[in-house]
């Protein structure tokens, strides 16, 4: 080997080692704890829970495995953030959470009951933790999320990829060390993985064993800041559908049938294609991308059938963020790989991207064809690959 090549090769190896992404390396995931048939793994600083059995059993496993983390998270997120910092009263939070949970399907009630029993946290507080993301809408704290899906001509024929940024209030950055990947392996239903905080049993981001993925963005600018309090909340509907439906056709029918409790924009995909569902409290419109193989969504409705004017001057720059993602998709057209998708997702709005450095709580990329997931918690943990099929059990 020529001597001048050795330093270059060493440099490339170091880049691959420290970037955690150059060669698509999977995280070093370690089993750290077991409880009543459930398992707790650690992927760096992110906890991964593999739960098995009935919903009550899985709830107990969840509570037993994360007891201390749940206690700490409740104190930080509810007591210090919502009650002390934002001034929302405990009684208001409790009432909001109990009313929402009252409409939950029995499977989720069983999860929360078991979680309460094994963690030792009163059920009313578990119900509050389940609403950790929804409580912010009491004071109309806007989300600033974004999503992009690429397939076909945009990936050069390689598998579909969908990336999402979960951008919330600045304070959510304080919760970085608490994010989990929770995998449900129900006895008779379809295995599902959700991204959530301790105590949550549903999520704004999830994928099932059959490769059906969804992510939810807030859509208040287009659908109005109206909460319908006698409906099941959208994240519950979405996770419920992942547990029930084997194919995207069925999932699509469920999305087209439901009436949302709030204005949201839900992106869903399988290995074939991705779609956006723009949901007000009165209507749902499903749309495809602006071109075959690309779908982008931020926080405003795009379908022209709404008859809305784009909110070009909004504080969250939803129109500009969407334009930035479309421009990046065109820049990488024909070669969007997981690595390229990471570059797209990591581009700050201040650098013609879509993410907000001060607001991005977590980022996810999925490849539904292989059930691979990459997760990043900015300023806490870089992109980390998780092969979900290793933790999904058979649903036969």
Architecture overview:
- The chain is α+β, with helices and mostly antiparallel strands.
- It has two domains: 29-136, no CATH class; 139-176 and 217-390, Penicillin V Acylase, Chain A (4-Layer Sandwich).
- It contains eleven helices and 16 strands.
What's the SSE pattern? HEEEHHHHHEEEEEEHHHEEEEHHEEE
- Main beta-sheet strand count, sense and barrel state: 10 strands, mixed
What overall geometry do the principal axes of the alpha carbons give? globular
Rg to the nearest angstrom? 20 Å
CATH topology of the largest domain: Penicillin V Acylase, Chain A
Q: CATH H-level name of the largest domain... which superfamily?
A: Penicillin V Acylase, Chain A
Unreliable stretches covering 5 or more consecutive residues: 1-24
CATH architecture level-2 label of the largest domain:
4-Layer Sandwich
* End-to-end CA span: 54 Å
Mean pLDDT: 91
CATH class of the largest domain: Alpha Beta
Helix fraction, binned, reads 25-40%
DSSP strand content: 15-25%
Count up the domains.
Answer: 2
Strand order of the largest sheet: 1-2-3-6-7-8-9-10-11-12
Class from helix and strand fractions: alpha+beta
């Amino acid at each position: 080997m020529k001597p001048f090549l050795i330093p270059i090769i060493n440099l490339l190896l170091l880049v691959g080692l420290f970037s955690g992404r150059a060669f698509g390396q999977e995280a070093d995931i370690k089993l750290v704890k077991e409880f009543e048939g459930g398992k707790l793994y650690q992927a760096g600083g992110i906890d991964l829970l593999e739960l098995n059995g009935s919903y009550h059993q899985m709830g107990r496993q969840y509570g037993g495995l994360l007891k201390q983390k749940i206690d700490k998270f409740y104190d930080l997120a509810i007591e210090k953030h919502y009650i002390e910092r934002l001034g929302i009263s405990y009684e208001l939070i409790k009432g909001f959470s109990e009313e929402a949970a009252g409409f939950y399907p029995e499977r989720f009630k069983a999860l929360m009951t078991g979680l309460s029993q094994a963690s030792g946290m009163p059920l009313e507080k578990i119900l509050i933790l389940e609403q950790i993301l929804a409580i912010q809408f009491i004071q109309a704290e806007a989300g600033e999320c974004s999503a992009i899906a690429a397939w076909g001509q945009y990936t050069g024929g390689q598998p579909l990829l969908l990336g999402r940024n979960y951008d919330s209030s600045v304070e959510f950055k304080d919760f970085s060390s608490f994010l989990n990947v929770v995998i449900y392996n129900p006895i008779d239903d379809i295995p599902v993985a959700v991204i959530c905080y301790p105590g949550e049993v549903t999520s704004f981001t999830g994928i099932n064993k059959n490769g059906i993925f969804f992510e939810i963005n807030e859509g208040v600018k287009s659908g109005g800041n109206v909460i319908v309090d006698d409906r099941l909340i959208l994240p519950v509907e979405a996770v419920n559908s992942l547990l029930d439906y084997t194919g995207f056709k069925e999932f699509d029918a469920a999305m087209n049938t439901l009436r949302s409790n709030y204005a949201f924009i839900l992106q869903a995909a399988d290995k074939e294609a991705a779609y956006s569902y723009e949901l007000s409290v009165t209507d749902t419109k499903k749309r495809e991308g602006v071109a075959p193989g690309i779908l982008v969504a931020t926080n405003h409705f795009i379908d022209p059938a709404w008859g809305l004017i784009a909110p070009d001057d909004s504080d969250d720059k939803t129109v500009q963020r969407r334009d930035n993602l479309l421009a990046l998709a065109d820049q990488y057209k024909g070669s969007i790989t997981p690595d390229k998708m990471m570059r797209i997702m990591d581009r700050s709005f201040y650098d013609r991207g879509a993410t907000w450095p001060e607001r991005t709580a977590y980022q996810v990329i999925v490849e539904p064809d292989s059930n691979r997931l990459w997760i990043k918690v900015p300023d806490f943990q870089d992109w980390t690959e998780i092969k979900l099929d290793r933790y999904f059990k058979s649903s036969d």
